[in-house]
Amino acid sequence: MEAIYSTFEDAENILLKEEENILRIIFTRHGRTRLNAERTFQPWTPEGDQLNAEGVISARDLGKKLNRIPIRKIYSSDWHRAIYTAQLINEERDQPLREMHLSRNLRDFNFGELCGVSVTEADRLYPELSEIRMNRLHTFEVPGGDTFADFHNEKKEELIRIIGENSMGNIMVVSHAYVAKCLILAALDLSVEGYAHKVNIKNTSISIVELKGSQIPGRLLVLNNR
Prior knowledge:
By secondary structure, this protein is an alpha/beta fold. It has a single domain (8-225), classed as Phosphoglycerate mutase-like (Rossmann fold, 3-Layer(aba) Sandwich). It is 38% helix and 16% strand. The protein is built from 9 helices and 6 strands. Strands 3-2-4-1-5-6 form a 6-stranded mixed sheet, with helices on both faces. It starts with 7 loop residues before the first helix and ends with a strand. 41% of the residues are buried.
């Protein structure tokens, strides 16, 4: 899966012009948190982990980068780190939106027994689980947590709902790493078996998918660019 443009700047001009029947979705992941920096699996709670100083700065920088782009709606996970990121992005725009659309269906993957465990410790304690997470993510199932295949299907349904509410222009979705991964794969109609382990979403990176006539698959304009 190759993006048409290498960077956001390369794609910026196409985003400046709204076209009838063309919907472009800008996907991003929340700003970096302390646990992200420590490479620790996030707790599955609404409050979760807070943005660190780097995360706040990068969210504001993303808002400045997107300042010229007309954005009709911002959708966000209803968890704090995503909401705060969306708010920071919105605040940096000359014409901030009056409201954001929060969705519980954009919540993060539940890592179950791995929540609060560092990646290094998880590799030591659960080597088989770590191998699946790294190489066969589509079969990933965490004790006490989510199954990736079911998680992907849920996010695909949420994507279809969002597309159904928008027919043209640019919209933005602020969520989490696995959520953005699933949404992008769903928008491109790519199999989780073949692509789940190949897409890695950085904090406050930009990925853009363009849909014509609200039809899936779309075309990938930008992937994971910062």
